[in-house]
């Protein structure tokens, strides 16, 4: 589903970017343009970011989820 309509960014793209190292909102903004325009997607994108980090921590117990 689309999370950021301004830049046509999907939840899958956000999850993938976080998994690839874009672990902060500023990383997602720089990489995908999330929340760089109207900002309405920021809350949802941040939630996805956090969920992905938790899942990464669960899948890789040795890796700390920030
Ligand atoms: S919906 Fe993402 S910046 Fe507008």
What does this structure look like?
The chain is mainly alpha-helical and 66 residues long. The protein has a single domain (2-59), classed as Orthogonal Bundle (Arc Repressor Mutant, subunit A). The chain is built from three helices and two strands, in the order ββααα. It has a two-stranded antiparallel sheet with strand order 1-2. Helix 1 (11-19) packs across helix 3 (42-59). It is elongated and about 35 Å long. The N and C termini lie far apart (25 Å). The mean pLDDT is 93.
Q: Could you give a short account of the major beta sheet?
A: 2 strands, antiparallel
Strand pairing plus helix content: what structural class? mainly alpha
Strand order of the largest sheet: 1-2
Helical amount: 40-55%
Question: What string, H for helix and E for strand, traces the elements in order?
Answer: EEHHH
* Discrete helix count: 3
CATH class: Mainly Alpha
Strand content: 5-15%
Measured between the Cα atoms of the first and last residue, the distance is 25 Å
Annotated CATH architecture: Orthogonal Bundle
Question: Could you tell me the number of beta strands?
Answer: 2
Mean pLDDT over the full residue set: 93
Number of domains: 1
pLDDT < 50 runs, ≥5 residues: none
């Amino acid at each position: 589903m689309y999370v950021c309509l301004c830049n046509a960014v999907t939840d899958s793209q956000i999850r993938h970017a976080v998994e690839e190292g874009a672990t902060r909102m500023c990383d997602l903004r720089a990489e995908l343009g999330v929340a760089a325009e109207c900002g309405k997607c920021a809350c949802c994108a941040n939630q996805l970011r956090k969920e992905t980090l938790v899942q990464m921590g669960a899948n890789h117990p040795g890796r700390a989820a920030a």
